[in-house]
Design a protein that fits this description.
With about 270 residues, the chain is mainly alpha-helical. Helices cover about 75% and strands about 0% of the residues. The longest helix is centred in the C-terminal third of the chain and has 33 residues, at about 165-195.
Length: about 270
Amino acid sequence: MRKVVDGYLRSPFSGIAPWILMSVLSSPGRFEEAVCFALGLVLMTMWVGSRRGITIHVLDIFGASFFVVLAGVGLFAPDGVIAWMETWAGELTNIALALFVVGTLIARRPFTLPYAKEDTPEEYWTSSLFMKINYVISAVWAGAFTFSAIVGAIGIAVTDDPNDFWTGWILQLAAIFFAVAFTEFYPDYAPAKESAAQGSPEAGPSFLELVDWLPTFVLVVGIFGWVTDALPAGLGVGMIAAGILGNAVMHNLTPSAREGPVVNEG
């Protein structure tokens, strides 16, 4: 359990998780609860990290500040403002985080950099490969949050429902899951690709790792959509069947073991 906690705290996901929680939970009637959960998670992450000797990152401070402001809005803003925030808080959260990540890229300090340094020997910190990995992963996260903000806004504009099954939940979660998979995939892929370009090919990860989460995701979406009547029964059952079949196919296609690079530089 200690290794799991430390792994989480040293991962960029620890800084991103409160934002995802805020984006997913925020909806009419749940704005204050979403803010409290997100703020509580970021404060707990900072506290536990400091107790474990892990550096508090800029993303943690930015997140705490952002959620404190939203909490103030929930406490003191007039009802009309709160009603607007209940509708648009998820999209504002995604936009704010996307802008933060883009800002770190412009400043040439990708937000993943401090997390990567936690697990990478110092002699690699200035290498072009190490920096490239962090630039690319940070850009993918910026794209995921931008995509989530766009589909959420489209859902509100078209369906007038912040909780629309597809635009408010499924598509946004899919973007996050892809970004998580890419964060795991790219630090192994980039060194292998560079070695191959230098004439010393080494085994790298399969591109299937980018989508090996998808069959299970489709299966869960099908079950959830069916039991909540968010999907027609036929579509729900079809997605369940597709998820089961996809998992079987993925199991057969994915190699049981791969050789990775000697040093993880991301």
